[in-house]
Specification:
Layout lengths: L5 E2 L31 E10 L5 E9 L5 E6 L6 E5 L11 H12 L4 H18 L7 H10 L5 H18 L10 H35 L1
Antiparallel strand pairs: 1-5, 2-3, 3-4, 4-5
């Protein structure tokens, strides 16, 4: 998950009236992704930037996961300007179905059993987008590996997602319930797979088009 700051779009009604106060009114926690988190004020201090204008910084803690969020206001209006870390935004080049499942996995990471199931569905949707539609997800992973879409290491990682999801789907009595850390690792794999299969090729094609268009 990215660590770049979230720059707020103030035209979006969700952020229009957010200010730094006793609570920070984000729609999700950047760490545990819980909906409407209770982000409580910890401390603040003035920071003098290079333009000699002061900005107020606030530090907030999620009551659920204890993750710390740093936020700064707009110098004049006092409205939220940016916060760190930012809330996850997936690349537009990821196919819609796979992206929808991946968002659900991210947004339910605080419910790990549900998260690993939809994360598995996201991986399955990515493979189907490439034309691997026959057989089980195990078969599709093997085909993608044989055709060098993914490496052997990625194959092993993908099977970890498949097995974890199957255990939760069938409520296997011998399997341990996944932790939030397990879910985060599975989400990391799905994000990496999406980067390799869709995001990087899209950016490369866009770069080539820009170069050719400039000639």
């Amino acid at each position: 998950m990215t660590n770049s700051p979230g720059i707020v779009n103030h035209s979006h009604p969700r952020f229009k009236y957010i200010k730094l106060g006793k609570n920070l009114d984000l729609n999700r926690c950047p760490y545990c992704n819980v909906d409407t988190p209770n982000l409580v004020f910890v401390q603040q201090h003035n920071f003098i930037g290079t333009d000699d204008h002061g900005r107020v910084w606030g530090i907030y803690k999620c009551v659920k996961c204890a993750g710390m969020v740093i936020a700064t206001n707009v110098r004049i209006q006092g409205q939220l300007h940016e916060f760190y870390p930012k809330i996850q935004v997936l690349d537009e080049s990821i196919p819609d179905r796979a992206k929808k499942y991946l968002y659900e996995a991210i947004n339910t990471v605080h419910s790990p059993s549900a998260s690993v199931v939809v994360c598995n569905s996201s991986v399955d949707a990515m493979l189907k987008e490439l034309g691997y539609t026959d057989g089980s997800i195990y078969h599709r992973i093997e085909e993608a590996t044989a055709n060098h879409y993914i490496t052997e290491d990625m194959r092993n990682w993908a099977h970890t997602i498949r097995i974890s999801a199957n255990e939760q789907r069938h409520s296997d009595l011998d399997s341990e319930l996944p932790t939030m850390e397990d879910a985060k690792q599975l989400i990391e794999f799905a994000e990496t797979l999406a980067m390799i299969l869709f995001v990087l090729p899209s950016r490369i094609n866009s770069g080539i088009s820009n170069v050719e268009g400039g000639e």
